[in-house]
Every structure is written in structure tokens, then in C-alpha cells.
Amino acid sequence: MRWRIWAFGWIAWVLTGCAAFDEYEDPVYLGRAMSRLSYVPAEGFREGDVLDSLLRIKEARLQSGSVDLPLLLEANRDPYDREVPSLPNQEGWHWLTLTIPASNPELHMMEVSSSSIDSMVVWMMCGDRVLHQTTAHGSSRHWPRGKGFGNFPAFDLPEEPCDDLRAIVGMKSGRGTPIPIRVHERSLLEVWQIRRDSFFMFYLGIMVVMLLYNAFLFFTLEDRTYLLYILFLVGVAGSQFALNGYSWMLGLNSHTWLGSRFVHFVGMYSGITTFLFIQRFLDLKRLAPGYYKTLNIILLCYVPAMVFLLWGKLNVAFDLINMPAMFSVLVLPAARHTMKRGHKSARFLLVAFSVFLVAVTVFALREFIPAIPHNWFTDFLMPIGSIVEVVLLSLALGDRINQFKRESEEAREEQLRISRLNEQIMQEQNAALEQRVQERTERLQEQNNTLESTLAELRMAQNQLVQSEKLASIGQLTAGIAHELNNPINFVSSSAQSLRRDFEDVASILQEVERLDSEGEQLDEAVRELHALVKRLDLEFTMKEIEELLTGIEDGAIRTSEIVKGLRIFSRMDGDAITRADINELLESTLVILRSSLKEEVQLHVDLAPNLETIECQPGKLNQVFMNLITNAAQATKDQEPQDRQVRVRTRMVLEGDNSWVQVAITDNGTGMSKEVLDHIFDPFYTTKDVGEGTGLGLSIVKGILDDHHAVLHIDTQPGEGSTFLISFPA
CA-to-CA distance for 80 and 30, rounded, in angstroms? Predict the structure, then answer.
């Protein structure tokens, strides 16, 4: 309650101090004595008529400023019905005529009480006679006049008496502005300017004090909120000084590039710093993210305003700059929202912006509501509102510091209480925890012993399964060897029986030859009988058959020898010893063993590169690797037709820089594997076969053997497109 009483008391003091200047009557504005000059086509004219076109050309000349006095005297007059009319926010020149009331011209001046006019042209006329013409460019103290004073353009009235004194005035401005034209004694106009200068010196003093005070707090506390508040102060004060024509203090003239845009730049700077300060002070990003995002979107409106301002479209830029200002009313609900979330200092900002928005609203509405007069109070309403705003916001920042301090003390007390409570709880629980840890340790030790026993049993079971897998391979090997040896043995056995019968025929012929007596009387008869026996036994066919049977027996013996050689290579006694071996030889021995079991299932294609380098390996284990991979490749094709099932075995030598590799590729055109299956094929006991068809250890054993040989295994597979196992052995 005390801060409210202090704030309203301070406002009353400011208003009382301003009222103390009021020892002269308010000047009278001459808006009702003014008329707007324009060339508007009369009713009934159609667009494109000659007269209509001429009128439009003359109106264009008025707006461009390329006019002469006769053109202005012929223009239409549209009287104003208010004491203080306004210029629309449009580019170009605006022209009006003013009837000046009869008075003593020696004691009077005509003043346009606005600092927003960039350029003016004035003709003073007595009846139809031109007394003098004045052209003025620039603003503030740079307006040319005799004994110039104040921030507003002022013109001496003609010295000679005139009962029909009037003025034709042309104005140009980069923004919409009221045109409060008044005629009064020079001394009274000087007093009014002194009042304005005194008030704004007082205003400047307050702003400087607030700025220095908050700058001290910023460097002391290093809180970025104070830096944003300082920037906000500069924007608020700068906009008020610029709007009231004090840009001459910076050496600016509205006829220059920067001077004509200074009010626009200051307006954008003030709006941007205001929104940034509000976001920071109210902590909208945390307490009200919706309002935070909305204000960020509003800030983007200044981008097109800057573009049009740099382009030179000052009036368009002025409208775009005012657009975000209209959304500043969102500050009020945002402040109320943060107050509900516990931000107590937001009440200061709520009051401050309410006062300022009321001041701005009343200041703007006096251009539309005749009941709101143009006097010293409404002229100074925006600066007074900004004073109240910045003072209350300084109090808000101070309250924010106190709030942080209170929260910090409460947080430290709560932290100390929690710390003591935690210490007590820890002391009470230490003994119980030690007991529980000891009991837990004993249980863990028992569980560890149980796990070690279980692990030993699992390893034993795994070894048994591995041996079972090896025995299954040996069983498959034995069946293949028996089948492969049975064919040549059966052929030799059957050939031997046929050979025996043929030898019996030859033996009977030889016996008849032995019984021949070269000196006997019946030699011719015996020879004829022998020839008959030879023809009957078909000795020529028998000799050919004996030759064929001997050749077949020799082939069977060679085939048996190859099988025995392959078996000897496949199951050599040094299979687990590391020695240098030829990969082609190991593959051939494996294929000899597997050929009988594969020849009826798949088409086996073998492409072994000649002159491969030997590698250091364990031949017996590599034979097991090749047998498992080739068998798996054949089984992967079982879903296809027998004539389409194919398995390819290929070897090659690869050189990569200084390294050489012996590569074995085993490819099938089977079902392929998905990524999920590929990720688990080397896991022990993982299998995609039906129950009872596999143990899931084959590829696990293969992976272990290849790792022992430092071989690199790469698998290329796609579902439905087959698989390729590429093994690279370092040579």
C-alpha cells in the first residue's frame, strides 16, 4: 500500500508543478479558419474525361510540390471543422489556406506547434496581393526566422495593417501529424517555449538520475536486466525528445537523410528495447512461453519497417513502426499471468504500463475526440506518463532485488534445515545400512558361489553340445565316405565276377591248345574244333570285355585312392597343429567328402584359382569350417526346385598395398537372411532350422575358428536373394 500512496503522491506533485507555469491564457488554435486545398473532380465527371484528367494532373502537381500561386488560388477549398486538424500519413505535399483574424501585426506571429513538419512554404496575402513568401526546410532550432526561438516553425506576420489577411501554407512530413496553427503575441509564444524547455530539462534530469542509478546497480549486481532497463530508459527518453523537436541537441536537421529518419529510428529502438526488457523482467520464457513467443513475433514487424525506412518510404515505415506499439497492450495480461505464477514484482510493471498506456491513449484520442483539448496538460501527457513508468519500473527492479534476497535467504534456511535433517537421517541409518550391507554381502557371496557352479555346469553342457555338433559332423562325414566308397567297391566286385567268367572261357581255349599234337594224324580236325570253340566263345569280344573290365577296375581303384587321400587330408593327425597348407587342397578334400551328399541336392560349381599362396592354419579346423559353410549353403536352397539349387565355391588371391589375402567365397541362391537374423547367426544355440534339425552351434564354432586364424568374415545377404560368405585369410 505504501508504494501506491507514494506513486500517486509523486504524480500529483508533478502535475502541481506543471500547473504552476500556467500564468498565461492558452493560445487559440485556428483550425476552423483553415481549409484544405485540392483538385477533386466534380460529380458527374467520368474517369478519362478531359476535365477529369486536367484536375488529376493539377492534384498530382499539388502533391509533388511543383506549384505556383495561381494554381493554389484556383484549388477547391474543403474547410476543417476542428480547432486542430491533422495531416494524413501520406507522402507528398499538403496545402491549406488560413484566414488570420484581424489584429495588430506588430505584436503577433503565426506558429505551427508541431515538430513533425519537415518542410514548409508560406504565402502571406492581403486580399489578392502577395505580401511575402517564405520557404523553410529543416526542423527545430534550424527553422529560419528573424529572432528565431523554440522548436516549432514560426513566421512573422506582415507589419502593415490588413483587414483581410490570409496565408496559403504547404507542408511536407514523413509521418502523420496534427497541425496546431496559432497566432499570438511573440512574448506569449516565448513563454510557452520556456515552459516546454523547463519541463523537458526537468524530464531530462529525472531520466539521467534514473539512468545513473540503474547503471550503478548494473555494474554492482551484474544483472543483465538492469542493462536492458538502461537501454529501455534511453529509448523512452530519446523518443520523447525526438517527438518534441529536441533532435537539434544532436545537431540533426530534418532536411538531412538522418534527420528526416531520426524519429523513426528512435521509435524502433524504443519499441525493441521495451519488448526485450519486458521479456527479461517478467521472465516470460519460463513463466509465460506463449507471451514470450508472441512478443518475438511482434519484434519481427520492425524488419519490414527498417527496409521501407532505408528505402525512403518514410510514411509507410511510420505505419509499420506504430503497428507493434498497438500490441504493447499484451504487456498487461502477460504481467497478470506472471503475477499468478508468483512473480510479485510484476505488479509494479502492471501499474507502470497501465499509466503509460492511458497517457498514450489520451494523447492519441485528442486527434479524434473534440472533447479532449490541445493544452499544456495533453501536450505533456506522454512525458509525464513515461516519468511515472520509469520511476515505477525502477521501484519494480528494487523490489525484484528484495524478492531475490528474500528467496535466497529462505532457500539458504531451507537448505540448512534439509542438511541437518539429512545428517540426522544418515546417522540413524548408518548402523542399519552397515548391517544390511553385511547381510547383502553374504547373500551376494552365496549367489556368486551358486552362479560359479551354474556357470561351470553351463560350460560343461556347452562343451558337450560342441562335441555333439562335432560328432554329428563326423557322422555326416562317415555316411558320405561310406556312400562314396561303396560305388567303386561295388563296381570292382561286379567287374571281378565278369572277369572271372571271361578268364574261364580263355582258360578252356588254352586247355584245348595245350592238347593239340603237332605230329598227330588228327591235327587238322583238332584245329578245326579249336576254331569252332573260339567262335563259339567269341574270344575277340571276350578280350575286349577283359580290357574294359580291367580299365574299370583301375578307375575304381584310382577313385578309391582319391577318396582315401581326401579322407587322409581332411582328418590328418596334425589337424589342430599350426602348419602351412594350401586352401585349394583343403577345399578339394572337403568337397570329396561332401560330393556324394550334395550331388543329388544342389549343383555345385567350383572355381579354384591356381597358384594360391599357402597360409599358416590348423587344417583340420578349417576343413570343419568349410564343411559347415558349404552344408549350410546347400540347406539354404531347399525351398527351390532341385534343378535351380546352386552353390558356388570360389578362391582368389587379393593384394591390398603391402598386404595379401587368400579369399574363399561360398555363395548360394537360397532364401537369404534379414538384418534381424544376421545379427544373431553367430550366437550359440541360435538357429532358424526346425526343431531337431540343428543345435545352433555350427556357425558359432565357425566364428571362433576364424577368429583364431585372424580371418575376416564378410556376409552379403538379402532376403530372397541368397547369401555370400566371404572369408579373407592373411597370406
Answer: 10
The CA-atom distances, in angstroms, between 604 and each of 314, 480, 586, 592, 669 are 88, 16, 16, 12, 12
d(CA 502, CA 132): 157
For the cut 50, the answer to whether the pLDDT of residue 147 exceeds it is no
- Show the DSSP H helices in 516-582 as ranges: 523-537, 539-570
* pLDDT tens-digit map of 112-131: 888 888 888 888 888 888 88
614 to each of 43, 91, 580, 660, 709, how far by Cα in Å? 111, 94, 6, 11, 13
C-alpha distances (whole Å) from 434 to each of 421, 422, 425, 699 are 20, 17, 14, 49
Span 406-438, pLDDT tens digits: 767 777 787 888 888 887 877 777 877 778 888
Dihedral pair phi/psi, residue 295, rounded to 5°: -65, -35
Segment 572-585 mean pLDDT: 71
Residue 305 C-alpha cell reads as: 519497417
pTM: 0.53
Total Cβ atoms within 10 A of residue 676: 7
Q: DSSP letter string over 608-623?
A: PPSSPPPEEE-HHHHH
Q: What is the CA radius of gyration of the chain?
A: 57
Partners of 125 in the beta sheet?
A: 130, 166
Closest CA to 682 of 715, 717, 711, 651: 715
For cell 554381502, the residue is 441
Q: What integer best gives the mean pLDDT of the chain?
A: 78
List domains and CATH numbers for the chain. Answer: 2-14+199-411 (1.20.1070), 21-195 (2.60.40.2380), 412-571 (no CATH), 579-730 (3.30.565.10)
- Residue 228 to residue 273: CA distance in whole angstroms: 7
CA distance linking residue 125 with residue 229, whole number of Å: 53
pLDDT mean over 227-238? 89
90-99, 164-173, 549-558, 580-589: least confidently modelled range: 549-558
Give the model's pLDDT for residue 475: 60
| Count of residues in the chain | 731
| Residue 21: predicted pLDDT | 40
Q: Reading across the β-sheet that carries 165-172, which strands appear in turn?
A: 76-79, 34-38, 93-99, 165-172, 119-126, 129-137
Is the pLDDT confidence value at 593 over 80?
no
- The answer to whether 632 touches 477, Cβ cutoff 8 Å, is no
Q: Could you give the 3-state DSSP secondary structure of residue 20?
A: coil
159 DSSP assignment: S
Q: 667 by DSSP, 3-state: which?
A: strand
Q: Which residues pair with 653 in a beta bridge?
A: 662
